[in-house]
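Example record

One chain of 185 residues, shown exactly as stored in the release files.
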Amino acid sequence: IELEPVKLLSREDQLEHTLAIERRRIRLGYEQVFQNLMQESNKEGDYYAFEEEDAVSTDLTHVQSIELVQPPHANHHGNTFGGQIMAWMETVGSISASRLCRSYPILKSVNMFKFWGPSVVGDRLVFNAIVNNTFQNSVEVGVRVEAYNCEEWITDEARHINSAFLIFNAVNDKEELLTFPRIKP
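Predicted structure tokens for this chain:
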């Protein structure tokens, strides 16, 4: 379907239109840069296979923790505080990242944190964390949270309630960023 051209009536409309064109140009430029990087990495051959001998298996970074939601962890309706879940997720993610850097990781950012469903007092929350990828000075840890009430615990029927990607850095005693090893996803 061909759309009618936009009629720019005011100076503000012209400015907004110009800005939208520029944002689109930049966005498409980033996509092209990404495509070029992917093509270059494919031309270089098996980059990951070459480095795979030195790479660390992600199996070594898997961490699981179980927490029981108690009344201090919940609001007056009995729903678990989101901040409490985030704190537990940061703890398990930090332990996962520390298995690679052999130091104390520092949380840099939280990406795509999603609340998929509620948990309440009495639920057992199972936190699973594993390193997804490493970059030169940072590591991405994926954390998934599942909730079980007493009946679900017995029948092993989990409710997926949270997911997030946590990005960590690590520093040495001189506050210099440490380099993370390559991993085998």
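Notes: The radius of gyration is 23 Å.
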